Amino acid sequence: MDRRLFLGLFISLPAAAGWRRDNREKCARIDERLKDVDSQRRAGYTAKQGRRLRERRDKLERTRRELCR
Which of 14, 22, 35, 47 is the most exposed place for a label (fewest CB within 10 A)? Predict the structure, then answer.
C-alpha cells in the first residue's frame, strides 16, 4: 500500500469519528423534535396545522439524513 494513502486514511478516520460525535447531540435534538411533531399529529390538528406539521417533519427528516448517518 502506498504510504501516502495509508497516512491519509490514518488521519481522516479519527477526524470523521469526531465529526460524528459532534453531531450526536444535534441528532438527539432532531429526534426529540420529531417525537414532538409526531405527538402533536396524534393529538389532532386542523388542516392548516397539519400542513405546517408535515412541512416541519419533512425539514427535520432532511436535516437528519444530512447530519446523522
Answer: 47
